[in-house]
């Protein structure tokens, strides 16, 4: 078998050496290779070269890549593709396999680098370090055209072997250079005797190193100095404490600091935190003000050294200071006096500190438990007896203040009394005597006759009817005020309660020592403000109880007042409606109508408006706890315009607005406007005004006519008689109760021309002409002509008196006016 193989080898070698006379073309060779691949004779991949004239296997490509790497140490993949002549895609693919199969290789940014290359680079770096002492990693990376991180990762395992240097902060330093800088750091650190920030120390060292290295030197990072400092501290070449990495406190300062604190505390029995912070005892030096962390640190420090001490917000104290303050406050409490603890404590103590010490005093604790003393404004201890003495004095003055404030806000207008006015103008004393009979008759008519709408609303029971009439006004008033009761009470209470400023002023009057504390606007935390806040609620309760007592006493009087007012308005308002109807006869005569409207507003309307305003003012005063003297119920109230406005303004809310509207209407020119505002005010006050119906009108006219007939029969004044006769004629002719002033009598007589016969009308006109003549003579009688005028006046008056029986016969005799 072996011989056969050897024979075949010889024949194959001979065939190869024999030159063929027939050559295959490139195309034939390609087709032959493809055929062999199809027949699986060639069962491995073949790669074309860039020229396309050669085939190369993948294994051969790997071998050639490995050969190039071993020869150069660092080769680019692109350069490999050009050198081998194979497409870049296949070279990159095989290069990755080569790198993965060999741990000594790395593929970085399209380059394959071997460890032998880095070893040679490390040797070169070591040689450069011997010349310049330091090299920047960034500089090396720039020269090698790789990243700084890659250079640093490559150099770290070679430090101390191939590279005799120290890597710190991106810099390579030789051992000699590190030793020199270490000596500089050691010397600078040992020269510090007070707490310092190491960052401030590194700056001058950097400048010194820069000057030492010259212009070619590289700046040293703070981290390099810090690492050297930390190593020295660990080796105990420097004594002290390092906090937060940069705050260095040398041990010599700590010893001096401890001695200062012990000396101050032993001499004064306290030490302020501010003093301790100046000595450097704080959680952080940069916090110049008090900080929670620093207080905790200081408290722990003192508790460890002085277990009997107490920590405060601004200082640390010994228990002896509590005993000293306790004896002082105990004396003040026993003497029913007061004390400001800050006055006996050091000036550096705050009010919060004083409060904490007071709460630790046994005498204060027992006094508070027994309610013998109070702590106010954090630092003041005031005995209860002292507070009671001030309060009793202020309480009396507060009552006077409340009464004065009530009187000032609700002006008591003096009511005016005068004789009753007659319904007929140009009244005389004799005519006024008939007012009582007239009023009685009208009142009787009012009681006997009830309007239809009120008859339906009235209860059928006599007992209920009486009860409803007596209490209707007060019930309706309470119902009106129900929704506003709380707010009105609160507002009224605030009006009559002394303000804080008044209370503080009275406290200063009692205790002049508090004057330096100032008012609440200047010092809201002053003892005056706290005392005022303590006493003012007590004053409020006292004044409220007093007002409640007075209000209870005034409740019955308020009810009687409302009932009396209701009765007075029942009569007077019906008369007003009766007189208003007579104004309809003069709507065509505007001038006369205006005179009659103004006359009725100034007489009857003014009387009932003054009565209502006066009684509402009294009711308001009684509600506010103001004592009001009793006035005669039968005397009418007459007010001036300014007094009416003042009374209206003193009322509350909508009642005041409607009262002002009533006053304005009273000074106007129309009776209907007055009637509207009067009804609104009465309704707001809880009063019920009766409406004049036909039945009531007939009753009132009958009583009014009867009263006028009585007056005409007894009238002795010839001037006053004319007005009464004209009023009677209007009742007979128009069934209207006319209220006319003297200057409107002529117009009133002219409106009767169609209702009277010619002789009656002539008698009236002649009598009216003679009356005017008499009044003209009386007003013109002055000076030297007085005697002559008196005779003429007497003659004219006698003439009128002689005609009085004829005038009376017009309304009392057989002759009657013609009816339309």
UniProtKB/TrEMBL annotation:
<dbReference type="Pfam" id="PF25041">
    <property type="entry name" value="UFL1_C"/>
</dbReference>
<dbReference type="InterPro" id="IPR056580">
    <property type="entry name" value="Ufl1_dom"/>
</dbReference>
<dbReference type="Pfam" id="PF09743">
    <property type="entry name" value="E3_UFM1_ligase"/>
</dbReference>
<dbReference type="InterPro" id="IPR056579">
    <property type="entry name" value="Ufl1_N"/>
</dbReference>
<feature type="compositionally biased region" description="Basic and acidic residues">
    <location>
        <begin position="477"/>
        <end position="489"/>
    </location>
</feature>
<feature type="domain" description="E3 UFM1-protein ligase-like C-terminal">
    <location>
        <begin position="697"/>
        <end position="810"/>
    </location>
</feature>
<dbReference type="InterPro" id="IPR056761">
    <property type="entry name" value="Ufl1-like_C"/>
</dbReference>
<feature type="domain" description="E3 UFM1-protein ligase 1-like">
    <location>
        <begin position="562"/>
        <end position="692"/>
    </location>
</feature>
<dbReference type="GO" id="GO:0061666">
    <property type="term" value="F:UFM1 ligase activity"/>
</dbReference>
<comment type="similarity">
    <text>Belongs to the UFL1 family.</text>
</comment>
<dbReference type="GO" id="GO:0032434">
    <property type="term" value="P:regulation of proteasomal ubiquitin-dependent protein catabolic process"/>
</dbReference>
<feature type="region of interest" description="Disordered">
    <location>
        <begin position="412"/>
        <end position="496"/>
    </location>
</feature>
<dbReference type="Pfam" id="PF25870">
    <property type="entry name" value="WHD_UFL1_5th"/>
</dbReference>
<dbReference type="GO" id="GO:0005789">
    <property type="term" value="C:endoplasmic reticulum membrane"/>
</dbReference>
<feature type="coiled-coil region">
    <location>
        <begin position="548"/>
        <end position="582"/>
    </location>
</feature>
<keyword id="KW-0808">Transferase</keyword>
<dbReference type="GO" id="GO:1990592">
    <property type="term" value="P:protein K69-linked ufmylation"/>
</dbReference>
<feature type="domain" description="E3 UFM1-protein ligase 1-like N-terminal">
    <location>
        <begin position="4"/>
        <end position="288"/>
    </location>
</feature>
<keyword id="KW-0175">Coiled coil</keyword>
<dbReference type="InterPro" id="IPR018611">
    <property type="entry name" value="Ufl1"/>
</dbReference>
<feature type="compositionally biased region" description="Polar residues">
    <location>
        <begin position="417"/>
        <end position="426"/>
    </location>
</feature>
<keyword id="KW-0833">Ubl conjugation pathway</keyword>
<dbReference type="Pfam" id="PF23659">
    <property type="entry name" value="UFL1"/>
</dbReference>
<dbReference type="GO" id="GO:0034976">
    <property type="term" value="P:response to endoplasmic reticulum stress"/>
</dbReference>
<protein>
    <recommendedName>
        <fullName>E3 UFM1-protein ligase 1 homolog</fullName>
    </recommendedName>
</protein>
């Amino acid at each position: 078998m072996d011989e056969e193989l050897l024979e075949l080898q010889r024949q194959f070698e001979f065939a190869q050496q024999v030159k063929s006379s027939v050559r295959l073309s490139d195309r034939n060779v390609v087709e032959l290779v493809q055929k062999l691949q199809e027949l699986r004779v060639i069962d491995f991949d073949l790669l074309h070269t860039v020229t396309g004239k050669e085939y190369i296997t993948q294994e051969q490509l790997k071998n050639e890549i490995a050969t190039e790497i071993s020869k150069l140490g660092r080769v680019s993949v692109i350069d490999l593709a050009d050198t081998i002549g194979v497409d870049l895609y296949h070279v990159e693919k095989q290069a990755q396999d080569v790198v993965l199969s060999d741990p000594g290789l790395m593929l970085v940014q399209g380059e394959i680098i071997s460890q032998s290359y880095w070893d040679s680079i490390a040797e070169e770096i070591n040689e450069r370090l011997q010349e310049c002492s330091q090299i920047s990693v960034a500089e090396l990376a720039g020269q090698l055209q790789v990243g700084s991180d890659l250079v640093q990762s490559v150099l770290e395992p070679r430090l101390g072997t191939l590279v005799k240097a120290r890597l710190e902060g991106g810099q390579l330093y030789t051992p000699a250079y590190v030793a020199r800088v270490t000596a500089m750091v050691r010397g600078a650190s040992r020269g510090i005797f007070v707490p310092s920030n190491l960052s401030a120390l590194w700056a001058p060292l950097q400048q010194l190193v820069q000057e030492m290295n010259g212009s070619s030197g590289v700046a040293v990072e703070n981290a390099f100095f810090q690492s050297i400092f930390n190593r020295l501290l660990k080796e105990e070449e420097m004594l002290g404490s390092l906090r937060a990495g940069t705050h260095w406190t040398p041990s010599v300062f700590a010893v001096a600091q401890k001695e200062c604190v012990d000396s101050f505390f032993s001499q004064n029995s306290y030490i302020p935190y501010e003093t301790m912070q100046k000595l450097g005892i704080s959680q952080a030096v940069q916090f110049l003000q008090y900080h929670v962390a620093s207080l905790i640190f200081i408290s722990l420090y003192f508790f460890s050294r002085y277990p009997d001490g107490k920590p405060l917000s601004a200082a640390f104290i010994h228990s002896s200071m509590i005993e000293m303050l306790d004896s002082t406050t105990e004396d003040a409490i026993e003497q029913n006096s007061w004390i400001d603890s800050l006055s006996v404590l050091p000036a550096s103590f705050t009010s919060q500190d004083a409060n904490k010490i007071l709460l630790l005093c046994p005498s204060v604790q027992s006094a508070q438990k027994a309610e013998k003393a109070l702590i106010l404004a954090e630092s003041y201890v005031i005995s209860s007896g002292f507070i009671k003495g001030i309060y009793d004095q202020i309480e009396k003055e507060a009552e006077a203040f409340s009464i004065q404030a009530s009187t000032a806000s609700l002006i008591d207008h003096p009511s005016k009394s005068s004789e009753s006015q007659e319904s007929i103008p140009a009244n005389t004393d004799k005519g006024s005597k008939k007012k009582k009979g007239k009023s009685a008759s009208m009142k009787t008519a009012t009681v006997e006759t009830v309007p239809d709408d009120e008859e339906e609303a009235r209860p059928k029971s006599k007992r209920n009817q009486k009860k409803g009439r007596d209490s209707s006004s007060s019930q309706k008033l309470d119902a009106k005020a129900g929704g506003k009761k709380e707010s009105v009470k609160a507002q009224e209470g605030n009006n009559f309660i002394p303000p804080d400023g008044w209370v503080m002023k009275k406290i200063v009057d009692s205790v002049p020592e508090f004057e330096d504390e100032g008012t609440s606007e200047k010092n809201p935390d002053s003892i005056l403000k706290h005392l005022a806040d303590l006493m003012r609620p007590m004053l409020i309760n006292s004044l409220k109880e007093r007002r409640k007592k007075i209000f209870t006493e005034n409740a019955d009087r308020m009810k009687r007042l409302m009932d009396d007012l209701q009765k007075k308005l029942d009569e007077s308002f019906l008369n007003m409606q009766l007189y208003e109807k007579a104004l309809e006869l003069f709507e065509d005569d505007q001038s006369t109508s205006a005179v009659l409207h103004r006359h009725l507003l100034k007489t009857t309307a003014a009387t009932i408006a003054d009565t209502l305003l006066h009684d509402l003012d009294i009711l308001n005063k009684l509600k506010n706890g103001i004592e009001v003297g009793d006035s005669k119920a039968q005397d009418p109230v007459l007010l001036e315009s300014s007094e009416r406005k003042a009374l209206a303004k003193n009322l509350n809310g909508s009642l005041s607005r409607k009262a002002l509207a009533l006053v304005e209407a009273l000074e106007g020119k129309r009776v209907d406007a007055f009637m509207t505002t009067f009804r609104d005010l009465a309704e707001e006050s809880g009063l019920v005004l009766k409406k004049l119906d036909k039945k009531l009108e007939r009753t009132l006219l009958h009583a009014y006519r009867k009263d006028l007939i009585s007056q005409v029969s007894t009238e002795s004044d010839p001037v006053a008689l004319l007005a009464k006769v004209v009023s009677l004629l209007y009742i007979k002719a128009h069934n209207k109760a006319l209220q006319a002033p003297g200057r409107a009598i002529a117009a009133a007589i002219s409106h009767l021309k169609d209702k009277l016969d010619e002789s009656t009308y002539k008698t009236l006109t002649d009598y009216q002409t003679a009356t005017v003549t008499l009044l003209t003579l009386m007003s013109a009688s002055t000076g030297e002509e007085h005697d002559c005028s008196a005779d003429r006046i007497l003659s004219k008056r006698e003439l009128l008196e002689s005609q009085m029986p004829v005038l009376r016969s017009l309304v009392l005799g057989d002759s009657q006016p013609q009816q339309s």
